[in-house]
Amino acid sequence: MASNSFGEIFRVTTWGESHGPALGAVVDGVPPLLALSEADIQVHLDRRRPGQSRFTTQRREPDAVRILSGVFEGLTTGAPIQLLIENTDQRSKDYSEIAEKFRPGHADYTYIRKYGIRDYRGGGRSSARETAARVAAGGVARKVLPPSVRIRGALIQVGRERIDAERWDDAEIDRNAFFCPDAAAAERFATYLDGVRKAGSSVGAVVQVIASGVPAGWGDPTYGKLDAELASAMMGINAVKGVEIGAGFAAAALTGEENADDMRSDGHGGVRFLANHAGGILGGISTGQDIVVRFAVKPTSSILTPRPTVDIHGQETEIVTKGRHDPCVGIRAVPVGEAMMACVLADQMLRQRALTGGAP
Q1: Which of 14, 257, 338, 356 is the most exposed place for a label (fewest CB within 10 A)?
Q2: What is the distance between the alpha carbons of residues 175 and 179, in angstroms, rounded to a whole number?
Q3: pLDDT tens-digit profile of 174-211?
Q4: b/e string for 265-301 if b means 16 or more Cβ within 10 A?
Q5: C-alpha Rg value of the chain to the nearest Å
Q6: What's the pLDDT tens digit per position in 231-278?
Q7: Whole-number Cα distances in Å, 111 to 19, 31, 125
């Protein structure tokens, strides 16, 4: 199956299915002599791992990563790094009743139209389970990036419930089950999702990812635009239906004066920006400000409410999707968004280094 890879120099190829024996990634283009261990990657997989609260799927996967190649005596060798994550808690029988039915909102119909065959056990390659491989690759990317680059994601909206930006607290993100920076909003999210879960339904979410410490100059002005590649990376995450950078769609309501991100001298030969409506990217190139990306995740399509559909024979029928599903898949999308940010930035950094002969 084509299109399983992304990146130019830092290149990631993922493989495996939701209910296969394992999944993983091959990460190529990693410079040699970087310290890298399984623990460096596992810490990020643990944040994405299912079954950690009542608000995510109860599939119990340890998501333990193994490095099979590309690392020797704790250092990268420059060879491709093979990452393996075994599947240990598949319940394929949960999907036996829908083997011949198309789930509304899922990729079942389009998948079979494209390939003539589909893996109905959880969705195969189109399952959100595939994102574990991306998170593992993102762990490698963070080791490639300089320590000055800090990437942090947060859940800022669940259904119609939103955070209060004035109450943003980075420390709060790791204190609740939602990666939410607003403690009061996290409590509202919990009450809201309890009702959604008990009703057998689902809701969408909005995730924000910020990268701080990225120097000015990464990205290209035409086909390698940093914002275009970030948008592609985030839109490629399962269930994502919208991406915006900086002010995003809100910029359409601003005047030129309001949107301009005025500049002043920083007193050291550089520039100080008075605003960041551009989200840290101008003309496809980083400005040195925070890079700010938001993406919208649709409601989980697997719900208990009977829905009208058709089967593989073209007959009209109804479907109920049983099994273990996230009432809001946007929660576990936070570490996935962070990983995709890291992978894109690592690739752009290496491309800039190749262009300038080693300068960052």
Answers
A1: 257
A2: 8
A3: 999 999 999 999 999 999 999 998 888 899 999 999 99
A4: eeeeeeeebeebbbbbbbebbbbbbbbbbbbbbbbbb
A5: 21
A6: 999 999 999 999 999 999 999 999 999 999 999 999 998 899 999 999
A7: 17, 36, 10
The pairing of beta strand 291-297 with beta strand 240-245: antiparallel
Q: For tokens 């990631």, what's the residue?
A: 12
- Continuous segment of H or E residues that includes residue 285: strand 285-286
Q: Is the dihedral of CA 25, 130, 236, 140 positive or negative?
A: negative
Residue 360 to residue 269: CA distance in whole angstroms: 18
Sign of CA dihedral 5, 23, 343, 185: positive
Nearest to 275 by CA among 264, 267, 283: 264
What angle do the packed helices 333-356 and 131-144 form, to 10 degrees?
Answer: 40
Element (H, E) at 93: none
For the CA atoms of 223, 229, 233, 234, the dihedral, rounded to the nearest 10 degrees, stands at -130
Chain-wide mean pLDDT for the chain? 92
